[in-house]
Amino acid sequence: MEIKVLKDILSANDRIAQRNRQLLDSHKIFAVNIMASPGAGKTSLIMETTKRLEGRVKPGVIEGDIASSIDAEAVGKMGVPVVQINTGGECHLDANMISNALGSLPLPEIQVLFIENVGNLVCPAEFALGEHLKVLIVHTPEGDDKPFKYPLMFHAVDAVIINKIDLLPYVKFNLEAYTKTVKSINSQVAIFPLSCTTGQGLDAWVAWLVEMASSLTR
């Protein structure tokens, strides 16, 4: 019974996600679903990426959190259109939440939409939102065992960003071994080691993102 209920929930979610995708495509908006554990640097990545997109691509942001509007306020100060979603306890965003948020954004003014999912390495992998790209952020202080513990998430994404590489000398994180493990789970995934603090590696990530979005936004 629980399996059937879950299938019904995911099926209903997928239908709404498809409508979201059609709406985004009609406005030529490239949507990026950004997932990570708490503290990995989702908001930092969005803000640093947005700075590097200035004058090239018009961004927008949907911020997802269980509570508070701290991240949305930080993004809003940059002059970027942003909407906050508070899930009230839910451990992920779903397509219906995104549908409601899209109605509050100036869609004609946006070319790339960043969707910051709730900090979690389990539930967000299963719920489509209508996005074009799924991105996972990991960070070096959390250790290098996460691909073994959460293989579904690593299998589901198009890109893995390894954040906080400036801390590599101080934490137990084997970057080379980690990359090989991720590739063994998902051979097609793009991997970007970078630091939102120092800026190292960010240009390569942004160039790839712009290239991925160009077919839709040009």
Q: Would you mind describing this structure in some detail?
A:
By secondary structure, the chain is α/β, with parallel strands linked by helices. It has one domain: Rossmann fold (3-Layer(aba) Sandwich). Helix content is 41%, strand content 18%. The protein has a seven-stranded parallel β-sheet, with helices on both faces. Strand 6, helix 7 and strand 7 form a beta-alpha-beta unit. Helix 1 runs parallel beside helix 4 and helix 2 crosses helix 8.
Number of helices: 8
Q: What's the CATH H-level homologous superfamily?
A: P-loop containing nucleotide triphosphate hydrolases
Q: What is the total domain count?
A: 1
CATH class: Alpha Beta
| Low-pLDDT sequence parts | none
State the separation between the terminal residues, measured CA to CA.
47 Å
Please tally the β strands and state the result.
Answer: 7
Salient structural properties:
218 residues, alpha/beta, single chain, 7-stranded parallel sheet
In short:
With 218 residues, the protein is an alpha/beta fold. It is built from eight helices and seven strands, in the order αβαβαβαββααβαβα. Helix 3 (70-76) links the parallel strand 2 and strand 3 (82-86).
